[in-house]
Each structure stands twice: as structure tokens, then as C-alpha cells.
Amino acid sequence: MWRANEKGIIEFAHGKEAWSLAEQAALACTCFVPDVEEEQVAGEERSCYDCRYRRWSVESFTCLRGTARHGESMTAH
To answer: Residue 16 has what pLDDT?
Structure first.
């Protein structure tokens, strides 16, 4: 679900509208912290799209916590 972007920063490989995949990733993440309510965009209780550690990018979002805490490699699935 994750890849390194051109700057080597960890980025969600599925863009800005992969709602179920963002939910699955957040459920597996041990570092998830919900962002403030005004910044949340997903309808799910837990989603990477609503995490305090995500930063929106042109294509998707980056994770400031990195894949080591997601328990998987950076290759897209």
C-alpha cells in the first residue's frame, strides 16, 4: 500500500479516493492518531485519510511515521 515518492518520502500508493484501503491501512497501523475533526474527510471511524500524521500531496498523501510502523514493505499491492 506504500511506496517511496521521488523524494524518498513514504506515500500511500492508491491516491486520494481509495477509502477502504486507507481504512485497512489505518486499522493495521500502530501509530494512528486521529486529526482534529475539522481536518477529517473520511466517513470511517479510522482511516489514514484522517490521521494526524498524513500530509496531502499532489497524487495522494505522505505518512510522517513511515512504513516501518505499518508493518509492511513500500511496494504497492
So the answer is: 97
